Amino acid sequence: MKSSISPTSVEKVMREDDFIVSKTDLKGRITYGNRTFIEFSGYSEGELLGAQHNIIRHPDMPRAVFKLLWDTIQTGRECNAYVKNLAKDGSFYWVFTNVTPSLDHNGNGTGYFSVRRKPGASGVKTVTGLYHAMLEAEQKAGARDAIAASTKILTDLLAEKGMSYDELVLAI
Fold it and tell me: Which of 14, 89, 124, 166 can bridge 18 by disulfide, Cβ–Cβ 3.0-4.6 Å?
């Protein structure tokens, strides 16, 4: 479902001591959001709870980044990423996120826990260019091949640098 929110050029910048925290079920529906998540997203707690986490997905984010994130966390591993989010009022805010699977006492997945903090300016600058190239590849390839085309841009860069995605985002 496409968002009816029109993105603006207004940026909200996280404070150094901010942590945005949210929890989702296994399908990505929000089950918890802290006050900082509510503040930056612009949604009320009632609007967020039960909504898909992609309610805050900014159209500048390549689909391949979310595929990588989901593929990683669904195998039980944590994932780090730079993400540009869309607030309810159309403004945006960058985060450096860590998403971790939540497990029950038997080790079965029950959902996901995400902690986001203010990203470094150099990291945002690096991923802005990368994400732009990935989005361009997605648009040129068309819906059917978009993720594959975008993923190729990312994997080519990682191969060139001899790094994994996690190593890249932690290094920038």
Answer: 14
